[in-house]
C-alpha cells in the first residue's frame, strides 16, 4: 500500500503553494456544497472573495471593514503564535480579550464624564493589564504547580463571560439605560472613544497598531534573540536548557504577551466598533485567532494574510446570506473546509507519500 | 489536473451581474439566532413571510440569521442598506445602538427595532405586551399545579422578563393563593442544554408546571419526559410535548410588519414611533388550549384574555406591593407605562432576588 515518510528537505515552494491550494480546493468543494443548496456556486464564491473587494455597491464600505474585522484576529493571533512556537498553548485568548475590554471600559467609565487627553492612552494600558492578568493565572499555575495551561486558560474564558454578564447587568450598567443591560456607549464619551483615523471608513487605532505589530513580530522572531529562544524551546526543550534560561521564564513571557495583546484587541473593540460592554460583547475572536495563527503558519506575514482572508470570508459570507439566501451554517462549513484543507496540505509539506510494492 | 487548474483560474474571472431585483421595495430582516429555533426568530420569520404573501412581487424580503449583537450587526445592516434595502427590521434588543449608527448613515432607509427604547427620525421601535399573555397562562398554571410550586426559567434580568414573572405570579396567586414561584436565571436567550438543565432542577425541587422566558423547545421536551406541564414560548410547541403542552403565548408579528411595510410604500411611515401592542392587536396570541385543562379553567383563562383585549382588565391592577412590602399600586390603580417599561423589582410574594 503506501506509507508516510518524513521529508528530509523542505520545499519552500510547497509551503507557499499549500495555502493557495487549500483556498482553491475550498472554493471547489464549497461550490459543490452551495450547488446542492440550490445556489449558483460561481455567484456565491465570487460574492465571498470578490464582491467585498471589488463590487461597486459594496467595496468602498467593505474594504476598510475587512481590515477592521481582521485587526483583532491579527493582533490576537500574533500573540498566540509566540506561545504556539514554544509549545505553550494559550487557548483562552477569548477570555483575555473580554477582560481587556472590561478593564479598559471600567477605567474609562469610572472617570465619566470628565474629559482628558490622558484617558484613552491610560485605557489602552488598562486593557493590556486586564488581558495579561487573566493570562497570568494559567502561567502561574503552570510554573508553580505544573497545571496544564490549555485547560486553565480555556476554563477562564467561561469565568470571564460570567464577569462580563456581571459587568453588563451590574457595575457597568448604564444608569440612564432604563434598567436594560449594557454599559454607556464609549463612542458618546469623547475622551474614551477609539476614534476613526480616516473619516467615514471606521478605521481605528487598533487597525494601525495591528499592522505595526506584524512588523514588530517579524523583527522579534527573525532578528531578536528572544525569537530564537522561543523557536529553540519549541523544537528542542533539552537544547534550550543548555542556554541556562529557565523554561518557566518562557511560559510567563509567552502568556504575558498573548494575554496582553488579546486584552489590547478587546480594548480597541469595546472603545471602537462595539462601543459598549454588553452581555454578548465577545463574538469568538479569541478562538478564531487560533485558526488564523495556524492558517498563517505562525509567521507574522502569514498571520496578516490569514487574518485578511478570514475577515473576507466573514464579510463576503454575510453578503451571500442575504443576497443569495445561503444559510449561516453553510458559510461556517465553508470556513471549516479552509482549515481542513490547509491542515491536510501541511501533512504533505512535512511528509512524503510513498507507495509500497507488495 | 489540468482541468482543475482551469477551474481555479476561471473562478475569480467570472463576473455575474444578474443579482439585481425588480421589486418596488426591498425589506431586510436580521435575526439573533436561526429561524429554525421554533421560538423568537421563527416567529419573526413567520412575520417576514406574511409580508411576502401580502405584497407578492412588489416587495422583496431578505434576511440574515445568527447576527451577533455587536459591531457585526452594524456591518450587516450597512451592507443590507448598500444592497438597496429600503426598510430594515432589527429583531433583537441588542441591535439598538448599531441600528442608530446605521440609521444616521442612511437617512432614507426606514428602520424598525424590536424591544428597544431609542428612536430617531428614521427609527421606530416595536414591542409586544407579552405580560398580557403571562396573565392568561399564569392563571392556567395556578389552577393546574398540584404541588403549588411553579418553576420559571428566565433569561436576562431585563424589565421585559421581570414584567413577565410579576404578571404571571399575580395571575397565578389570584387563581391559587398557595402557589410559590421558583425562578432560575440562565443568562441566555437560546441554549437548549442550559434550558433543559434549569427545567430539570426546577422539577427536582418539586415544580410541576414550568414557565419559560427563553427561546428553545428544550424545556417542553424535558417536561414531557418528567410528566409535568409547560407552556409554548413564542410559538405553539405542542409537537415537542403533546401531553405537557398546556397552551402557548404566540408572538404575532405578521400584522405589524405588513402594516408598516404598507405605510412605507404609501409614504405614511413615520420614524420616532414606539409601538407597544398586545392581545388586542394580535401581536400577542393565546394558543390552543390543551384538553388537559378543565373546561371551567379554559373559560376563565379566555375571559382574562378577552378582558385585557377589551381594556376592562389590566395585568397589573392594585392593590399590589413591591417585594419589600412597600406599596406600589393602590386598590384599583393600574401600572403606568414608565414603571412597566423600566420594571426592576419583584412584586410581593416572589422569593429570591433579581440578579444584579
Please provide a written account of the structure.
- The complex is a heterodimer of chains A (358) and B (356).
- Chain A has 358 residues and is mostly helical.
- Helices cover 70% and strands 3% of the residues of chain A.
- Chain A has 14 helices and two strands, in the order βααααααααααααααβ.
- In chain A, strands 1-2 form a two-stranded antiparallel ribbon.
- Chain A is globular, with a radius of gyration of 22 Å.
- With 356 residues, chain B is α/β, with parallel strands linked by helices.
- Chain B has two domains: 130 residues, Response regulator (Rossmann fold), CATH 3.40.50; 179 residues, Response regulator (Rossmann fold, 3-Layer(aba) Sandwich), CATH 3.40.50.
- In chain B, 38% of the residues lie in helices and 19% in strands.
- Chain B contains eleven helices and 14 strands.
- Chain B is globular.
- The chains are: A mainly alpha (358), B alpha/beta (356).
- The interface between A and B is large, with 50 and 45 residues.
| Radius of gyration computed on alpha carbons of chain A | 22 Å
CATH class term of the largest domain in chain B = Alpha Beta
CATH architecture of chain A: Orthogonal Bundle
The CATH top-level class label of chain A: Mainly Alpha
User: In percent, how helical is the residue content of chain A?
Assistant: over 70%
Oligomeric state of this protein: heterodimer
Q: What is the number of domains of chain A?
A: 1
What structural class do the secondary elements of chain B suggest? alpha/beta
Amino acid at each position: 500500500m503506501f506509507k508516510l515518510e518524513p521529508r528530509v528537505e523542505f520545499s519552500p515552494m510547497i509551503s507557499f503553494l499549500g495555502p493557495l491550494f487549500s483556498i482553491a480546493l475550498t472554493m471547489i468543494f464549497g461550490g459543490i456544497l452551495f450547488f446542492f443548496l440550490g445556489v449558483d456556486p460561481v455567484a456565491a464564491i465570487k460574492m465571498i472573495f470578490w464582491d467585498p473587494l471589488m463590487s461597486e455597491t459594496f467595496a468602498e464600505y467593505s474594504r476598510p471593514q475587512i481590515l477592521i474585522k481582521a485587526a483583532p484576529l491579527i493582533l490576537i493571533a500574533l500573540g498566540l503564535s509566540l506561545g504556539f512556537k514554544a509549545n505553550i498553548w494559550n487557548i483562552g485568548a477569548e477570555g483575555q480579550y473580554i477582560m481587556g475590554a472590561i478593564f479598559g471600559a471600567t477605567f474609562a467609565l469610572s472617570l465619566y464624564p470628565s474629559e482628558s487627553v490622558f484617558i484613552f492612552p491610560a485605557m489602552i494600558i488598562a486593557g493590556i493589564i486586564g488581558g495579561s492578568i487573566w493570562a497570568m493565572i494559567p502561567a502561574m499555575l503552570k510554573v508553580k504547580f505544573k497545571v496544564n495551561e490549555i485547560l486553565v486558560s480555556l476554563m477562564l474564558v467561561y469565568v470571564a463571560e460570567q464577569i462580563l454578564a456581571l459587568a453588563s447587568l451590574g457595575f457597568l450598567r448604564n444608569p440612564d439605560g432604563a434598567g436594560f443591560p449594557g454599559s454607556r456607549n464609549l463612542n458618546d464619551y469623547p475622551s474614551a472613544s477609539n476614534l476613526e483615523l480616516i473619516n467615514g471608513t471606521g478605521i481605528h487605532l487598533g487597525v494601525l497598531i495591528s499592522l505595526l505589530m506584524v512588523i514588530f513580530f517579524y523583527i522579534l522572531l527573525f532578528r531578536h534573540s528572544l525569537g530564537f529562544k522561543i523557536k529553540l524551546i519549541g523544537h528542542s526543550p533539552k537544547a534550550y536548557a543548555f542556554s541556562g534560561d529557565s523554561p518557566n521564564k518562557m511560559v510567563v513571557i509567552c502568556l504575558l504577551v498573548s494575554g496582553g495583546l488579546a486584552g489590547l484587541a478587546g480594548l480597541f473593540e469595546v472603545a471602537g466598533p462595539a462601543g459598549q460592554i454588553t452581555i454578548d460583547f465577545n463574538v469568538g475572536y479569541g478562538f478564531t485567532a487560533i485558526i488564523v495563527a495556524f492558517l498563517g503558519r505562525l509567521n507574522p506575514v502569514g498571520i496578516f494574510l490569514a487574518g485578511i482572508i478570514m475577515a473576507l470570508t466573514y464579510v463576503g459570507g454575510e453578503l451571500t446570506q442575504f443576497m443569495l439566501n445561503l444559510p449561516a451554517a453553510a458559510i461556517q462549513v465553508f470556513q471549516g473546509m479552509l482549515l481542513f484543507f490547509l491542515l491536510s496540505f501541511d501533512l504533505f509539506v512535512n511528509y512524503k507519500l510513498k507507495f509500497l510494492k507488495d | 489536473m489540468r482541468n482543475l487548474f482551469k477551474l481555479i483560474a476561471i473562478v475569480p474571472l467570472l463576473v455575474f451581474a444578474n443579482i439585481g431585483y425588480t421589486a418596488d421595495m426591498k425589506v431586510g430582516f436580521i435575526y439573533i439566532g436561526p429561524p429554525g429555533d421554533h421560538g423568537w426568530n421563527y416567529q419573526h420569520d413567520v412575520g417576514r413571510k406574511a409580508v411576502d404573501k401580502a405584497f407578492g412581487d412588489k416587495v422583496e424580503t431578505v434576511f440574515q440569521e445568527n447576527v451577533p449583537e455587536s459591531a457585526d450587526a452594524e456591518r450587516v445592516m450597512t451592507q443590507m442598506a448598500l444592497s438597496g434595502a429600503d426598510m430594515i427590521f432589527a429583531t433583537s434588543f441588542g441591535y439598538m445602538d448599531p441600528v442608530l449608527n446605521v440609521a444616521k448613515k442612511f437617512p432614507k432607509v426606514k428602520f424598525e427595532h424590536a424591544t428597544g427604547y431609542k428612536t430617531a427620525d428614521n427609527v421606530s421601535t416595536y414591542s409586544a405586551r407579552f405580560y398580557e399573555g403571562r396573565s392568561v397562562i399564569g392563571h392556567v398554571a395556578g389552577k393546574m399545579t398540584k404541588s403549588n410550586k411553579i418553576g420559571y426559567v428566565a433569561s436576562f434580568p431585563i424589565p421585559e422578563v421581570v414584567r413577565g414573572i410579576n404578571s404571571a405570579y399575580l395571575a397565578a396567586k389570584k387563581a391559587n393563593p398557595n402557589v410559590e414561584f421558583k425562578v432560575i436565571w440562565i443568562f441566555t436567550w437560546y441554549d437548549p442544554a442550559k434550558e433543559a438543565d434549569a427545567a430539570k432542577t426546577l422539577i427536582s425541587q418539586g415544580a410541576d408546571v414550568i414557565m419559560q422566558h427563553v427561546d428553545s423547545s428544550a424545556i417542553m421536551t424535558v417536561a414531557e419526559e418528567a410528566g409535568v406541564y409547560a407552556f409554548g414560548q413564542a410559538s405553539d410547541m405542542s409537537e415537542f410535548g403533546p401531553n405537557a403542552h398546556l397552551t402557548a403565548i404566540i408572538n404575532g408579528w405578521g400584522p405589524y410588519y405588513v402594516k408598516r411595510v404598507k405605510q412605507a410604500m404609501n409614504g405614511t411611515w413615520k420614524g420616532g414611533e414606539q409601538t407597544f401592542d398586545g392581545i388586542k392587536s394580535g401581536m400577542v396570541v393565546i394558543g390552543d388550549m390543551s384538553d388537559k385543562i378543565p373546561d371551567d379553567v379554559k373559560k376563565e383563562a379566555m375571559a382574562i384574555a378577552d378582558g385585557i383585549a377589551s381594556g376592562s382588565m389590566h395585568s397589573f391592577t392594585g392593590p399590589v406591593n413591591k417585594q419589600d412590602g412597600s406599596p406600589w399600586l393602590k386598590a384599583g390603580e393600574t401600572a403606568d407605562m414608565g414603571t412597566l417599561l423600566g420594571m426592576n423589582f419583584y412584586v410581593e410574594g416572589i422569593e429570591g432576588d433579581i440578579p444584579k
